[in-house]
Protein: 3-isopropylmalate dehydrogenase
Organism: Robertmurraya kyonggiensis
Amino acid sequence: MKKRIAILPGDGIGKEVTRGAVEVLQAIGERFGHQFSFSYGKIGGGAVDEMGTPLPDETTRLCKDSDAVLLGAVGGPKWDQIPVHLRPERGLLKIRKELDLYANLRPTLYYSSLADASPLKKEVIEDVDLLMVRELTGGLYFGKPSERSTQDGRDVVVDTLFYQKEEMTRVIKLAFELAQNRGGKVTSVDKANVLESSRMWREVAEEVAKDFPEVTLEHMLVDNAAMQMVRNPKQFDVVVTENMFGDILSDEASVLTGSLGMLPSASISEKGPYLYEPIHGSAPDIEGQNIANPLATILSVAMMLRLSFGLEEEAQAVEASVNEVLNNGFRTKDIASPGKKLVSTTEMVEEVKATI
Amino acid sequence: MKKRIAILPGDGIGKEVTRGAVEVLQAIGERFGHQFSFSYGKIGGGAVDEMGTPLPDETTRLCKDSDAVLLGAVGGPKWDQIPVHLRPERGLLKIRKELDLYANLRPTLYYSSLADASPLKKEVIEDVDLLMVRELTGGLYFGKPSERSTQDGRDVVVDTLFYQKEEMTRVIKLAFELAQNRGGKVTSVDKANVLESSRMWREVAEEVAKDFPEVTLEHMLVDNAAMQMVRNPKQFDVVVTENMFGDILSDEASVLTGSLGMLPSASISEKGPYLYEPIHGSAPDIEGQNIANPLATILSVAMMLRLSFGLEEEAQAVEASVNEVLNNGFRTKDIASPGKKLVSTTEMVEEVKATI
Ligand SMILES: CC(C)[C@H](C(=O)O)[C@@H](O)C(=O)O
Ligand SMILES: CC(C)[C@H](C(=O)O)[C@@H](O)C(=O)O
């Protein structure tokens, strides 16, 4: 199989972790006989510095010409004070729109080897296996108006939560499809007791559910979901929600198992290419020190192999390697614990490659 | 001191827990020589059934004529399918607007006697003492338009996040005032990298901070806050945020210490009366069984004594009684644990009264 992959390292540790993931992809290519070619594009603060925009058109073009996109991370204090439309995260929001990445998938997996790192009790998180599906191109993120004005001499401000029904349908449908191949349960999160958009969301979920008789649908209010996520995360299989609620809940979910540096994500469009990135940020404080955890990015590559290329065996090979390396006691600094072998970013990558 | 208190028991266990709290207020009145008079009003599902509206005008009038309001809880499956404008929680939203309750205060306190009940590890929650200050009358909750329509033949929906700058100022100012008498730190939560309203919020926080040089202000993005709340709740002192973010984060905060049945809240207006209520819901599944935990409502009464009546000593007497009763091993079912004495709602109330 031949595939073109766009690599957008971005800022901070983005370069280091994507470099590691590319090496893992190459190792997979060699072992399974695939040809992966890599092209590099700029995004985020580095792009602002060099080209005056957080998402240059040529990066968009590169992505559209590729079969999949791997992103490192964007942002850093260096760009905190520049005008809003130039901020690194604008690049992220723009690429989502440009590629129509309407759904963000974030698995939260329990790693028994990392249980100590979790703030939660072991019995609460043991065997947690939840998948957050977040709507990614609608809601408060892109609704207009989003502006200040004066009304009767008073300063006021408005943001707009806007959705097309069709945008709800496609992401909820995706959640059901995913649940079908997992635990068979969808928790749809909304605030139907307050928001009209949530009442529509709930109706759409009911409609979609009719086509998936073997999947159980449950509705949960967002405030309750924020509670239940901490109280009993095991109750969840697939959780689907709108953009802003998803932003909050998926970050909450990501710390449950104590393995933030381990969590991958995929952003899906109708026609492809899909975009993959680790959950974690650009961590400018540890940039260039060769101590960042590359596993989230490596596991993002496993998602790429599975979801973009249909290479299930190859995906499992990557996931198995990561597990083996952890079981062998190798740890980057963020997940280090007494008695384990502390390794650098590049050493961790070598270990993973060696077990592939 | 003479005070008129409006009691709105509401639905489900609301009646049982407010009854207990009234008895505790009476006990305080006797011991400290105050005269509390109680008048009862309807709100929620019961009000819908009897009077066709979740907040009858006479309840509003009663509240406005009182020095403070104590609310039990509203809602239940019985009213889940009725038209939105009649739902029990509409009564809650309406009373907030009618009394202009612009700030909701929710302390989350660590009880060493209840540490086992927390989903978090003891070292993570030990000595947590955080106060959520949630804006309660603005944002997505009341913004217009909130409606469906068709655009180019497509079904669409819009909700509106609207704020007056002045609404931000007063609640943020309150947070600073509260922090001054606590840990001296305010964490202002927003989504300034996406929302214009959050950028205004951040500016207002900076402005207000100038008048409180002894208080430290920190800004945190809401997704990060949802993480940090689980990861390291001890870092927080006072957290202030807009209505919807506050709804989500305060519910998240409320499960950290495992003592949801223990958590009180106060809703503040500029001129009073203030409204007090437990965090927990109406729990229709255990209604009438005399097993509900009355302590959250009793602790809400302690907040009333402190914030509405300036009776600090009396407030502390209530809080001390609750602590003593817990230390003596008394537990309602929700916080029961092996080796402790399981008591009913009324028995728990008797224990608290006995130690006052
Ligand atoms: C950087 C920010 C705009 C972004 C978001 O809110 O979507 C981030 O938090 C994320 O979740 O990818
Ligand atoms: C019942 C509901 C409308 C309400 C809210 O969202 O404000 C509740 O969740 C709360 O926090 O008091």
